[in-house]
Amino acid sequence: MAFTFKNLPVERDDLRNDVLSGLAASPKSIPPKYFYDEAGCRLFEAICRQPEYALCRTEQALMASRLSDIAAAIGPVDCIVEPGAGDCVKVRLLLDALHPCHLAVLDIAGASLAAAAQAVSRDYPDLAVTALGMDFIHDLEAAEPYLPAGRRLIYYPGSSIGNFPPDAASAVLARFRRLAGAEGQLLIGFDLKKDPQLLHAAYNDAAGVTAAFNLNLLERLNRELGADFEPSRFRHYAFYNPVAGRIEMHLISLAGQDVEIAGQRFHFALGETLHTEHSYKFHCDEFSAIAKTAGWQRSAEWEHDGFAVQLYG
Ligand code: AVJ
Fold first, then answer.
1. Residue 193: closest CA among 266, 283, 256
2. DSSP conformation class of 282
3. pTM (2 decimals)?
4. 35, 90, 159, best to mutate for ligand 1 pocket (most atoms within 8 Å of CB)
5. Distance (Å) from CA 125 to ligand 1 centroid
6. Is the beta carbon of 157 within 6 A of some atom in ligand 1?
7. Three-state SS across 45-106?
8. Model confidence over 32-62: pLDDT tens digits?
């Protein structure tokens, strides 16, 4: 059936402007959405195979074991919209259980998304598949013209919402609310607060894949902006901050050094951080309170092994 791919690409200017303003700030930071170039997408998929990083496996186990329950709670759906769909594997369980007419997958990594969505389209011949390569955090509204009318379910798995501090998470969820419409629903998965040693290990895997994922950001800036980062002079540093309830990921300068990016020079002192990601962990009710500020009422929830999936209407 119909397969549509539309690239509304992230402008190189956006990347450059975000990086230049992030490096001019104190502390220095870069938004985590820029991890996901092609190499970054592959490294993230490799993180999900590490024994210490159970998040994706736990969520899929929960979805598989409670699927009929979840589908019954959702009821009939015309269109599933998945922002940040990546390899488009997770949504297949829902396609099998809900049989929507239309699937719309959105991701900042357009090329990887197109290939993954085309594979879904081949495997589900009766399904209309729309793949949008776009920055849905920046401009979710740009997806609206490509979506059919009818009952929409927004699916946001994988604890992606954890990358946003509570205020920003609420803003993202409010935009999901507008895209879903008054009759729409949201099925969202997020990581729960747990033993900090487990969290620490998940972001410091023994094989060093998370470190490579973090450092790839510097290589991306070298490739795409002609920066001259020397990745070996930065250390991957990730830890759980129990006061803020989040993993913080940093790249810490191992020397005093200057870096040039797009004609501008930035100084890193020895020990100075470039902050690259927050990954918030929640209690179920804490998350529902955030969702409520965005106009969502919880209608069901499922929990398994330190991970939660909640349904909102
Ligand atoms: C894809 C945002 C859920 O925060 O756990 C994995 C990304 N970062 N290891 C997360 C990530 C480091 C991941 N999310």
1. 283
2. B
3. 0.96
4. 159
5. 32
6. no
7. HHHCCCCCCCHHHHHHHHHHHCHHHHHHHHCCCCEEEEECCCCCCCCHHHHHHHCCCEEEEE
8. 999 999 999 999 999 999 999 999 999 999 9
